[in-house]
Amino acid sequence: MIGARRAVLSEPPVNYDPNSYGTFSIENNSEIRLPIAYDIVGHSFSVETKVRLNAWRSGDHTFLGQKDPYGYLQTLHILARDMRPHFGFYGNDYNAGGDQLTTGVWYRLVYMYDHDDPKRKIIYRDGQYLGEAGSGALTGTQRLYIGSWGNGRQFVGDMMYLRIWNKVLTPSEITAYDNKKIGHSIPGLEVSYNMSYWLNGDGNERVQDYSGNGWDAMPDGTVIWNSL
What we know:
The chain has one domain (22-227): Sandwich (Jelly Rolls), CATH 2.60.120.200. The chain is 3% helix and 42% strand. The chain contains one helix and 16 strands. Strand 13 and strand 14 (205-209) form a beta hairpin.
């Protein structure tokens, strides 16, 4: 398990525009932890991210997940498993199948959970519907992590952004938000990490939440900021 240790981050240029994109290269055994108070239980949600995998893996490349406790419907994991988009609540999983993701290529992935009956998980890749499956309701309220779930299963690659919405995005919204910088006052937007960072006054690096809701995250391990 990763301890709370200071992230290794490069310094953005002096003229860096915080509204522009950078990327985080998340190296092995590293992660970014969201505030413990934030959770996504009890309602629909969508997670969209733009990622580039840097290593082929037969296991998991995790984009967003939870750790202990384990239990049926208790541990969220949003990831690529065997290089294919995969969405699970521990013991209640959906793998989109189809073509495997390729290393070195940017993909925009959208994972959506519809809490209304009948509950379902839905996955899009690069604006295209991959499929859906029936789902149980997520019950785990433990902390969310970018880049790991369970006992590790880290993401090794680059991430341009990660956003969490409190609703199921429509196909037109999925298209409209592609490669758009999303900031304050967008209905339904709860978290928006454009993968820039700011140095807090206490000397701890934070990944800034641009939704306006104040859910800044904390990197642990080796997370390298890069400009685009």
